[in-house]
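Recall that a protein's primary structure is simply its ordered list of amino acids. Everything else, from secondary elements to tertiary packing, is in principle encoded there. The following example makes that idea concrete.
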Amino acid sequence: MSKLFKLTVAAVGGFVAGILLAPKSGEETRADLKAKAQEAKKKAKKKAGEMKDAAGEGRETLKRGADAAGKEAVAFGRSAKASAERIAAEAAELGGEARTRARRVAEDAKKTADTLQKDAKEHLR
């Protein structure tokens, strides 16, 4: 239990005990109790309204925060997708370039091997 609730219960209990033990007539005591009960009811309604308003504000704040977080997540996802597509395109381009260069190197190596073989045959004769 919260300290505020315990304090409220103690105050109400003390008030009721004070009224019941006070040297007043039954009619006066009932009138006092009724007035205090109505006052407590008004305060409770006021507090309930304040709590309802605070809950509504909290809900709206939470909703705005969730909307902002959702939009941020969508934007991040789009950015990540665009980055991944750029990287994939660059990788494909580099792969093609690597194949072309490897083919050239292989052709050059074959020509060099053919030339060496030809030179070796001529020198061995």
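The helical segments are 3-21, 26-124. The longest helix spans residues 26-124.
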